[in-house]
Predict the structure.
Amino acid sequence: MEVRICISVCSGQRSLVEALNIDQRKEPPSVPQKQLQEVPVAEVPKPPKEYKIVYDSSQPVTGIVFSLEGRIFDRVLLPVIVAEELGDSLVTVYSAKRVNPSVIRSYGTVRYADNVEQARSNPRMGSNAMIIPASRITKENMIVVKGEAARLIKETTSHNNDYLSEAKVVISAQ
């Protein structure tokens, strides 16, 4: 049996991205309604020493890799990344709502890699990808990162460097 799916632009046919109608799509109830841009993250508790975020802070961040570090995660077309330790609830850091629709049609919302080195070698990541370890995966299959990661993402996406809206995101299994 063969199944053909057109993910972006197909001559004379609707694509999968158009069929998903992402612009009009509502997030599932499990996805936090609060977005990272709406939350002050200046006073985030420091993460434990073993929680290490890697990037060169002297240069603009060019992409982001979320390292699952072997945690079980079902690969999905429209992943959701949330942050903990920002008040009393989770906050949405990244979802399809954050990505420009034209970028989704061309590249999708995320790439997957087997390990961090493979993720870094993705040409869309550029030379200074931020590597953020996941702290856990929720039962709803959302990736959770620490509050410090959310603070850094918010800081590095400001000043016309919004790599998230360009879907420069890779999820790495290791």
User: Anything to note?
Assistant: Helices lie at 16-20, 101-107, 116-120, 147-156.
